[in-house]
Amino acid sequence: MRISPHKHQQIRLKNWSITLAILCLVGALAWLSNRYSAEADITRNSSNSLSQASQKLLGSLPDQIHLTAYIKKDPGLRSQITQLVDRYKRRKADLTLTFVDPDSQPEKIRELNIDATGAVIVEYQTRTEKLNFIDESSLTNALLQLANANERWITFLSGHGERAADGIANFDFGQFGKELDRRKIKAQSINLATVPAIPDNSALLVLSAPSVPLLAGEIELIKGYIRQGGNLLLLTDPANHNLEELLQVLGLRQLPGTLVDSNSKLYGINDPSFVVTGDYPPHQITQGFQTITVYPVTAALEISEETDYHPVALMKSGAKSWTETGPVAGKILFDADGDEKQGPFAFAYSLTRPSANSKQAQEQRIVVIGDGDFLSNAYLGNVGNLDMGLRMINWLIHDDRFIDIPAKIASDKNLQLSQIGVAVIGFGFLIVIPVLLLGSGFYIWRKRRQR
Q1: 47, 123, 214, 394: which one has the fewest Cβ atoms less than 10 Å from its Cβ?
Q2: Where would I find the DUF7088 domain in this sequence (predicted)?
Q3: 151-396: what fold?
Q4: Sequence-distant (≥ 6) Cβ neighbours of residue 77 within 8 angstroms
Q5: How many Å is the maximal CA-CA distance in the chain?
Q6: Rounded distance, CA 300 to CA 369, Å?
Q7: 371-401 burial by CB neighbour count: b if 16+ within 10 A, else e?
Q8: What are the domain boundaries of the chain?
């Protein structure tokens, strides 16, 4: 059949019209996709989506969120962080992420106490949180803490050689006090010998290894504070017996000697008096915490069976630890025939009980640690010490609104194929599919030639 020129022109015009319509449709779809987003997570456990708790929290944050990742130029690690943050940006458009090479800003790195592995600084309403490890749980809980704009007060006991919350000496807590202030947790010092009362606005009393004994009247004031359900952070040191009476009230006993742990060598620390731990029990303080913490010159603690509190051992030394009663110098060995005891030992406890104060519905919370140095200016920047200290303070003042976001583990990540299955797939992709494509192309070409 012969096609007339007029008919041929109509067919060409029809083809051009169809092509133009398709291009317009593609352009419209591109414009709509840029203006409106539609997505669906088809993974079995929704591993590419935020949990409902994270989505709800983002909806309650009206202001801009900025994340600064001080990460070296590692494309793989930066890509993982970007993918995580993109999930948040889909729910909150004014959330931004900036990458900074730590080597380009050494002074800022020292100011923020960021180690060689890097960190992510989360900023919201002029307040910041530092994350050494980032996943949905840690980022969401950091945003939850930043959302709290209420000012809180904690009291540090002074007048007995304690570590000062605003001190600049190596053994003081000045840097930790600044970190608390950035989170609207105000630290105040009080000498009970001159002001015989603990302020009513204080949510927590901190006793940091006094170097001289407390007066009998001061001890009674603190006992009364404990009886009334006051929250307490008690830090002691080896050979420091100035808080023994208060430890007895809590049902704790400080073991003689210094806790030494040969496992510290595994972390490159040659001083056995440094206790390093990275294994934490289930607790609100340690929930989702995956960073090691370092405790220099530590005392082991022992809990009494007759305590009125519910105790949880927060930190323990390794199986190769013991209480060294002699000088920790040179080569030291465990003396089984002496007063030394073989570990592992707990050196940090959390204690809880229903509040004795009828006006206070919350439970009483106490943390006792056999080391007063891990939050000092000299050691605060070591690995996870700052984060652990902040977690303890938040828990003690009942600001523990951590969200439990379970890790999303992808199921069926591995595909196991038999040798026959591998052969069939290889034969199909390498031979069958190319032959079918060539055959169909040849058939279409022949049909067009026959017209």
Answers
A1: 47
A2: 47-122
A3: Rossmann fold (3.40.50)
A4: 71
A5: 118
A6: 9
A7: bbbbbbbebbebbbbbbbbbbbbbbbbebee
A8: 52-142, 151-396
Dump pLDDT digits (tens) for 168-216.
999 999 999 988 887 778 999 999 988 888 888 899 999 999 999 999 9
3-class secondary structure per residue, the chain: CCCCHHHHHHHHHHHHHHHHHHHHHHHHHHHHHHHCCCCCCCCCCCCCCCCHHHHHHHHCCCCCEEEEEECCCCHHHHHHHHHHHHHHHHHCCCEEEEEECHHHCHHHHHHCCCCCCCEEEEEECCEEEEECCCCHHHHHHHHHHHCCCCCEEEEEECCCCCCCCCCCCCCCCHHHHHHHHHCCEEEEEECCCCCCCCCCCEEEEEEECCCCCCCHHHHHHHHHHHHCCCCEEEECCCCCCCCHHHHHHHCEEECCCEEEEHHHHHHCCCCCCEEEECCCCCCCCCCCCCCCEEEECECCEEECCCCCCEEEEEEECCCCEEEECCCCCCCCCCCCCCCCCECCCEEEEEEEECCCCCCCCCCEEEEEECCCCCCCCCCCCCCCHHHHHHHHHHHHCCCCCCCCCCCCCCCCCCCCCCHHHHHHHHHHHHHHHHHHHHHHHHHHHHHHHCC
Q: Provide the 10 A C-beta neighbour count for residue 214.
A: 21
The model carries a pTM of 0.68
